[in-house]
Amino acid sequence: MLLKLTTTHQPATDLGYLLAKNPARVQSAELSFGQAHICYPEASAERCSLLLLLEVDPVALVRRGGDGDGGLTQYVNDRPYVASSFLAVALAQLFSSALAGRSRDRPELAATAIPLGVEIPVLRCGGDGQRLRDCFEPLGYTVEIQRLPLDPQFPEWGESPYFSLQLQTTARLSEVLSQLYVLLPAIDGDKHYYVGSDEVDKLVARGGDWLASHPQRDWILSAYLRRQRSLVGEALGKLLGTGETELEQASETEGSDEAALERRISLNDQRMAAIEEHLLRLQARSVLDVGCGEGRLLGRLLKQRSFERLLGIDVSSLALQRAAQRLRLEQLPARQRERIELAVGSLVYRDARMAGFDAACAIEVIEHIDAPRLAAFERSLFEFARPGAVLISTPNVEFNARFAGMRPGQLRHRDHRFEWTRAEFRDWATAVAQRHGYQVEFHPIGEVDPDLGPPTQLGIFVR
Question: By three-state DSSP, how is residue 88 classified?
């Protein structure tokens, strides 16, 4: 079982400091299921690669009570060769500090995104291998796969369920290792040890920063936890900070804390009207609505014939189902139906479907994103999708003092990760615009308090 990890960050040999493994010597370690060997087949200032070789002993596994179908299959199987939970466990044990994002000698580099390549010669995956792309591409990886022949000398034996996998990305090493730790066992579909509640904690610890908004989240949870519904529900609740039932109820009701607060001044209607007005002013013909929710903005835009193409993306399939019902997509005339599309997707991962739009809107979205993930949101929208204009609205926390019954420091919604002052939003938006070649202007939405400003602040970025 092999894994190769490569970087071209310079000096590339800093990879040894990040992994706490000296490139100058071969190292070996005893694991519960066999032996691990680590070496560096190349180590120069320009390029450095670490190779991890696992020698799994299937006989020892059976003697210790390992799983098996009985008879010869307990000893003759693909477990010694195919990337699986064995490899995930090895990553956690051999590179624990790197997995946790720590480096004694290069702490600043451990927190920096660097170019990384991953090569896995053999990975089991059902179907045509599309699952590999579905798992890794939303995380920003460039994915190359190749189906391996079952036996080149006997083509009549049929196609193999095994693939070679090559990944390229620019990310923190801890992110890549965490994603491999979760995704390799899920894709393989089997685990060599008992799966109980402690696996939920491991999953949340390794996937908390990226898994909650992954388009394949539900499948990954189910596959990683061996399709145990109680554990999947527990993991989902911990990832989202709420149980599944509570989450659905919160999205179903219009009486949430934020909606109740803002309904008194019809702020949502004012928001949607303002966004529509600015899009018309910008003469946008195609509009992307990221975090579209139940489609309130899309419903307004669909009534305007000047908007020829509309795409709503949201991480919640439940919200998109409600959007389809609200928009009555099934009843729309054919020509009108062709103008609009709804799709499941994440706001913090690169997505080719988001490219090519005149304008993109993120209305009351960024405050729901964990602050460390804002940089990923910024890149996916401004660097990769790169629409002609971007409209971003967010609450003005200063105005919260005007809402009756709100306590000092309380946010408008339980899912808000932050709420910014006018100065904080301006500083963030101005920096984003400068980094990506946009000009930004700011507009108030709602009643403007002479001291506290408007309840909603809007930034319009134009290339």
Answer: helix
Cβ atoms within 10 Å of 392's Cβ, excluding its own: 24
Q: How big is the CA angle at 197 (ends 193 and 199), to the nearest 5 degrees? A: 50
Q: Which amino acid would we find at residue 385?
A: A
Residue 302 has pLDDT above 60, yes or no: yes
pTM of the model: 0.54
Backbone conformation region of residue 150, classed left if phi is above 0, alpha if psi is from -120 to 50, else beta: alpha
If one counts every other C-beta atom within 10 angstroms of the C-beta of residue 197, the result is 12
Secondary structure element (H or E) that encloses residue 149, with its range: strand 142-149
Packing angle, helices 229-240 and 244-252, rounded to 10: 50
Going by C-alpha positions, the residue among 265, 206, 255 that lies closest to residue 404 is 265
Beta bridge partners of 441: 460
Element housing 164 (H / E): strand 159-171
- Per-residue pLDDT tens for 76-131? 677 788 888 889 989 999 999 999 999 999 999 999 999 999 999 999 987 788 89
Q: What CA–CA distances, in Å, run from 174 to 12, 100, 107, 138, 232?
A: 16, 6, 12, 17, 24
Q: Which residue has the higher pLDDT, 17 or 315?
A: 17
